[in-house]
Amino acid sequence: PLVSVNLLANAGGSVLRSEIVGCIKMRVYLSGMPELRLGLNDKVLFESTGRGKSKSVELEDVKFHQCVRLSRFENDRTISFIPPDGEFELMSYRLNTHVKPLIWIESVIERHAHSRVEYMVKAKSQFKRRSTANNVEIVIPVPHDADTPKFKTTVGNVKYAPEQNAVVWSIKSFPGGKEYLMRAHFGLPSVESEETEGRAPIQVKFEIPYFTTSGIQVRYLKIIEKSGYQALPWVRYITQNGDYQLRTN
C-alpha cells in the first residue's frame, strides 16, 4: 500500500484540510493463472461479519483494476482477481480522515531596515522514533527580488532556487521525534516586495517506508489453488506527501 497525505495547515498549527489518497500496487510473478484474494481491514466488511469493534477503515471512492471481480466485491466485499504478470495498480481509494502533520515546520521571518530579510526555520518530525522519512524537501517561498543568499543548517543542505522564488532545504534521512534548524539570510533591493506580494505556503515532500498513517492493513493475500501452490506474498507500506502545505504568518 502506498499512501499520499494531502494536508493544509495554518501557521498556528490547526489543520484546515486533510485527506488520504491511497493505492495498492502489486508486482506479480506466478506460474499459471491462479486466483488471488486480498483481505483488508475494510469497515463495511467488518461490520457485516460482526467484527465491528476491530480496527477498520472506511474506504471511499474505491476504484479497481479491470482484473478484479466487481460482482464479488459488491456482493460480499471480497477482493478476488486473476492478476496480470508484472507490476500494476490493483486499487485506489480515499479516506476522509483527520491527519496530524507528520512533518511540522515553524518559521520566523525578520526584516531588517528594508534591506535584508532573515528566515529561521524549524522542522520537526511528529511520527514515532522507529520510523524515518527519506528524501525530505522543504520548499520555503522568498521574495522574488531576494539576492545574496547565505545559509546555516544543523542537517542536510540548502540551496536557493530563484526560478521557484524559494529556498529548498533537503534532508536525506529524517528520523521520527527529531527537530532540525535552518537559517537563511537574503539581501532585499526593493522596499515593498513582500508586503504587496502576499506569502505562499511552505511545501514539504517526503517518503516514509514501512509506515501507514491511514490505518489500512493487508490482513491476508491468499492464492486460491487446489494443488498445494507455493508462493511468498510480501507486503510493504509507504507513506508520502501529496499536496502538503503549511501556511506562514
What does this entry look like structurally?
- Keywords: Cytoplasmic vesicle, Golgi apparatus, Membrane, Phosphoprotein, Protein transport, Transport.
- It comes from Amblyomma triste.
- It is found in: Cytoplasmic vesicle, Clathrin-coated vesicle membrane; Golgi apparatus.
- This protein is mainly beta and 249 residues long.
- It folds into two domains: 131 residues, Immunoglobulin-like; 103 residues, Mu homology domain, subdomain B (Immunoglobulin-like).
- 7% of the residues lie in helices and 53% in strands.
- It is built from three helices and 16 strands.
- Strands 4-6-2-1-16-14-9-12-11 form a nine-stranded mixed β-sheet, with no helix packed on it.
- The longest helix has 7 residues.
- The mean pLDDT is 89.
Radius of gyration over all CA atoms, rounded: 23 Å
Give the biggest beta sheet: 9 strands, mixed
What form results from the Cα inertia axes?
A: elongated
CATH class of the largest domain: Mainly Beta
Count of helical stretches: 3
Total domain count: 2
Helix/strand/pairing category: mainly beta
Distance between termini? 35 Å
Q: What is the share of helical residues?
A: under 10%
Percent of residues in β-strands: over 45%
DSSP E strands, number: 16
Strand order of the largest sheet: 4-6-2-1-16-14-9-12-11
Order of helices and strands: EEEHEHEEEEEEEEEHEEE
**CATH homologous superfamily heading of the largest domain:** Mu homology domain, subdomain B
Mean pLDDT across residues: 89
- Low-pLDDT regions: none
CATH level-two architecture of the largest domain:
Sandwich
Examine the coordinates and then state which fold CATH places here, giving the name of the CATH topology of the largest domain.
Immunoglobulin-like
InterPro entries: Adaptor_comp_med_subunit, AP2_Mu_C_sf, Clathrin_mu, Clathrin_mu_CS, MHD
Organism: Amblyomma triste (Neotropical tick)
Pfam family, one: Adap_comp_sub
Subcellular location: Cytoplasmic vesicle, Clathrin-coated vesicle membrane; Golgi apparatus
